[in-house]
Write a structure and sequence with these properties.
The chain has 214 residues and is mostly helical. It has helices spanning 7-33, 36-43, 47-53, 57-81, 89-100, 103-116, 120-144, 153-171, 177-194, 199-213. The chain is 79% helix and 0% strand. 23% of the residues are buried.
Amino acid sequence: MVPRRTQEQRSSEMRTRLLEATIDCLVDYGYAGTTVNRVAERAGVTRGAQVHHYPAKVDLVVAAVQYLATKRIEAARIDAKTLVTSTNKLSDALDLLWKMNQGRLFEASVELWVAARTDSDLRSHAHEVEGLVAAAALEIGTMIMPERTKDPRFIAQIYSARDTIRGLIIWSWGMSEPQREARWMHAKRLMLDAWPVPADEEIRQFAGAQRVAR
């Protein structure tokens, strides 16, 4: 006999349906076209049930983007564990960062950012979600490349890579997949060339150069 679901389980399933429906609406209709009625209809729930869990549109949208970000971060953590023993960690880490900023999460996030430009309340919520994603990117970078974490340039380089990737993704909307991939490979090569050598490695190289000079 299948056990009956608890009230908390039913509420959790309801919230998940609403959040997934909100992401779908953000991607399909944009922020302005994402209405609470449209979300409730797509989720297959009543308007009253939607209001019970998320009283206002901003609550629903922010919770949805944060929900999807959390799922993407969990998946990225799993991917990162397989890169710990990589022989080309930096290149693989950049590929993972590229992957983290793809798909529904990024498209929904862009809708949130654009709407937040002229909405101060929404902007503060958007920063909260961004903080979550940024912290995860640093955590994953540290997991893959722990030898670089003592370098003060590490955090700045992670953020610069993220900003480059996001700009490239937005610019490449409408391109074919081969074009997008070619642009990414070119950008990655430039980032790899510009990425600083770890500070301790610079010290070893300097010491080696000194020995050769003597």
